[in-house]
Design brief:
Layout (H helix, E strand, L loop, with lengths): L2 H10 L5 H12 L8 H13 L3 E9 L2 E9 L1 H16 L8 H4 L7 H24 L9 H38 L1
Helix pairs in contact: 1-4, 2-3, 6-7
Length: 181
Amino acid sequence: MSIQIFILGSLSEGNCYPYDIKKKIGKHLDQTDAKITEGTIYYNFEVLHKKGLIEKIETIQSENRPDKTMYGITEKGRLALEDSIYKVFQKFTNVQSLYAALVNLDKVDNQKIAYLIEDIIVKQRNKIEYIEQQKPEQIDANEDLMDALWLMRDHAYQTIQSNIDWLQKLLHHVQSRVLKN
C-alpha cells in the first residue's frame, strides 16, 4: 500500500493530524499482514511536506505532551494524488499494489481507470498465454527439477488467473461508478 497516496487521499477530505491517519490506516490494514509504524507515518508526512504536497495548518503545544501538528493538502498535492493513483494502475505489479488507490477512486476519472484496468487485464492474459507455451519437459533435467518446474508454472498460472478474475470484478465496479456519474 502506498502510504503517501493514503495520506494525500485522507487529507483531500479534510485537515487532520498524523495520528488520525495512523488510526485510519490501521482500520484499512486490519485485513492484511501489513504493519505501519508511527515512525513510517511521520516520515511520510515529512516527505510530503518537503515536496510541497501538504502544509502545516496548525500546531498545538502543551506542556506535558509533544507538539501536535495538523496538516492539509495543497493544490499541488491534489494533482499529485490524482497522478499517483493513475501511475499505480499503469505500473501494476500485483493486486495489493492497488489497495491505496482503491480507497481513493472518488478522486480520479473512473473512465480513465477503467481503461487502465482493461490494459492490465490484457497484459495479464498475455502472461497466461506465455506460461501456457512454456513446457518444462522441453529441458533436460532430473525428475525432482521437473516436478518443481511444473509446480512453479502452475503457481504462476493460478496467481495470474486469480488476478485476472479479481481485476474483472474491479473493472465492473469502476464501470458501474462511471454509469452513475
